[in-house]
Automatic annotation (TrEMBL):
Entry keyword annotation includes ATP-binding: no
Main subcellular location of this protein, as a coarse class: membrane
Protein name: STAS domain-containing protein
Cellular component annotations (GO), alphabetically ordered: membrane
Composition-biased stretches (Basic and acidic residues): 1-34
Lineage: Eukaryota, Metazoa, Ecdysozoa, Arthropoda, Hexapoda
Length: 612
């Protein structure tokens, strides 16, 4: 996935002026006042723009230009997407340890809400493998109400991130960490589905290695029917995936197009064929008057959409009432990690498919938050954008987000009419669908690229740490560890700071002076490095004037400001003259108590006490 949103934490841009030694233009103060007024007006304008209904409901903008060609394209794309979404949603619910209908609830509400609030026509909101696995991590062994509360709380966090424009937070998750996280997630899901693929009873929930070891130690107990069906479904899914290559478009375009649609619908076809096979075997085989099948089936699923129910309520667990605040506390770090991962995935997918490459990240946060908040009122699990489904939508020629309406109607049709037939869907088939879907998430080739001499070693270390910890301790811990390691390199530059020294001459004379230029920022941790560089120059050539160029500084904390004054005193004691500061921002001049001279800015000195 690509980076999520451009970092906007630093409101002030560094000064673009070239270094100037001498008096500042007197109009600068007037410009500062004008800039402050302009900034205030801009902020009010941004606030009013954020409340514009057309901004928060993008459908009000594009629906005016909607025509018959758009409707036909969206219908084809929506139906194609729905045929992919329904079997995936059923399968993803099983990853989260939920009955299959909860995946359909999420698919229906996510698709429906995004029609009105979404900005990227290709994005498909619904259950995903990442969200399902994170949901399992935080709600395993707990009542379903915990899942609903997690979706509700995640939606509120996403709305808050949109309101406070915190989308840039996903920039702290680097590409290597994202790759390691998704690759480890894919392996964990594949390992968890091996039991269903082989017809084994529920495996041990003790991490990836414990699950795989449990499966390997019980291979002798595998059910022949489930194993053959599961492997056969994986082979069929892979064959259907490459089906369009049999007849290239240049040879016979209509046939290629037909094969392409068959390939896109491969999940639905495999599930349908497996369910028909199971239904035939169940109705034709009876054991003592009871119908049986040679493989395990999904079981009964509730039909219909549940009634609206506000998620903020208590739940009874083993005769004990658990309040809503207690459930929120028990979810712990999931309240942050689940929405953070959801935002990362959704914004990255939106950027990948946006036609002009520009994404309104704030609106996408609002849309995702509303999908989860409204979905939780109808018992939906946490949702986000799905890359595979978005790719299907893009390849199907989608024109507007209205295609999601047809996908939502198909999900509603499945919940209202087809749920009795979901009973016959074999679990081995759902496991095959999941394994085939997440196999593409494995990105082990990045290790070779990160190991090249030109790459940063911290990137390889971050990938390795995140991948290993995800498999051993869980994806939430692995993600945090990977983020921590990947931040080492930027922290090294910010915390330690870097200083460059140049020699220059005054424009109106041949006098030579030394210019020391701190890079990026000057924080308390980088004060010693600057002090060492300045004093080294003073000792080397004490007779030359010394200038501290603040042109590239974007941040200055209190400790560094105090250290600058003390450093100026040290320079004066060496007899090198005053420490002159150039290109200082007007606001910093007041904070540092600087005095303007013909040479530049110097620190004000207390007036000597009179003897009289």
């Amino acid at each position: 996935m690509e980076e999520a949103e451009e970092l906007r934490a630093l409101r002030q841009e560094p000064s673009g002026r070239r270094i100037t030694i001498g008096r500042e233009d007197p109009n600068d103060r007037k410009d500062e006042s004008h800039t402050t007024t302009t900034t205030t007006n801009t902020r009010w304008g941004t606030l009013l723009e954020g409340c514009d209904p057309k901004r928060r409901l993008p459908i009000l903008t594009w629906i005016r230009k909607y025509d018959g060609a758009d409707a036909l394209s969206d219908l084809i794309a929506g139906v194609t997407l729905g045929l992919t979404m329904i079997p995936q949603s059923i399968a993803y619910a099983t990853i989260a340890g939920l009955p299959s209908q909860y995946g359909l609830y999420a698919a229906f509400m996510g698709s429906l809400v995004y029609v009105f609030c979404g900005t990227v026509r290709e994005v498909s909101i619904g259950p995903t493998s990442l969200m399902s696995l994170l949901t399992l991590e935080y709600t395993a062994g707990r009542p379903v109400q915990y899942v609903i509360v997690l979706a509700f709380a995640a939606g509120l966090v996403e709305l808050a991130m949109g309101a406070f424009r915190l989308g840039f937070l996903v920039c702290f998750i680097s590409v290597p960490v994202t790759s390691a996280f998704t690759s480890a997630t894919a392996l964990i899901i594949i390992g968890a589905q091996l039991g269903n693929l082989l017809g084994l009873p529920r495996t041990v929930d003790g991490g990836f290695f414990a699950t795989v070891w449990s499966v390997l130690s019980r291979l002798a107990e595998s059910a022949a029917g489930d194993t053959l069906l599961g492997i056969g479904c994986i082979v069929l899914l892979l064959a259907l995936q490459y089906l369009p290559r049999l007849v290239p478009a240049t040879r016979n375009r209509p046939v290629h197009r037909a094969l392409w649609y068959v390939s896109l619908s491969r999940n639905a076809l495999v599930v349908l064929l497996s369910a028909l096979l199971a239904h035939h075997l169940v109705t034709s085989n009876t054991d003592g008057g009871k119908a049986t099948a040679p493989f395990r089936l999904s079981g009964r699923i509730e039909s219909g959409i549940p009634a609206f129910e506000w998620p903020v309520r208590d739940v009874t667990v083993n005769g004990t009432t658990v309040t809503f605040p207690q459930m929120v506390v028990e979810l712990g770090s999931g309240l942050v990690l689940v929405p953070l991962v959801a935002v990362l995935a959704n914004v990255a997918i939106a950027k990948a498919f946006a036609s002009d490459g520009v994404v309104d990240a704030t609106q996408e946060l609002f849309a995702l938050g509303l999908c989860n908040v409204i979905g939780s009122c109808f018992r939906a699990m946490p949702t986000t954008g799905a890359f595979t489904r978005s790719a299907v939508s893009h390849a199907s020629g989608v024109r507007t987000p209205l295609a999601g309406l047809y996908s939502a109607l198909l999900a509603l049709l499945a919940l209202g009419v087809l749920t009795p037939y979901f009973y016959y869907i074999p679990r081995a088939t759902l496991a095959a669908v999941l394994i085939a879907a997440v196999a593409s998430m494995l990105d082990l080739g990045i290790v070779r690229r990160l190991a090249r001499p030109s790459a940063l070693r911290t990137d390889l270390l971050a990938w390795t740490v995140c991948f290993a910890v995800c498999l051993v301790q869980g994806v939430e811990v692995g993600l945090l560890c990977g983020m921590a390691v990947s931040l080492l390199e930027p922290l090294r530059h910010w915390v330690g700071g870097s200083v460059s020294t140049i020699s220059t001459t005054l424009s109106d004379s041949a006098a030579v002076l030394r210019c020391i230029r701190p890079e990026v920022g000057l924080l308390y941790t980088g004060v010693d490095r600057l002090r060492t560089a300045v004093l080294a120059e003073v000792r080397r050539q004490p007779s030359l004037p010394l200038v501290l160029d603040c042109e590239r500084l974007v941040v200055l904390d209190y400790t560094a400001a105090r250290a600058l004054r003390e450093l100026a005193d040290e320079v004066a004691r060496y007899g090198a003259g005053p420490l002159v500061l150039a290109n200082v921002r007007p606001g910093w001049c007041r904070a540092l108590e600087l005095h303007q001279t013909d040479e530049g800015y110097v620190f004000k000195r207390p007036e000597p006490a009179s003897n009289g």
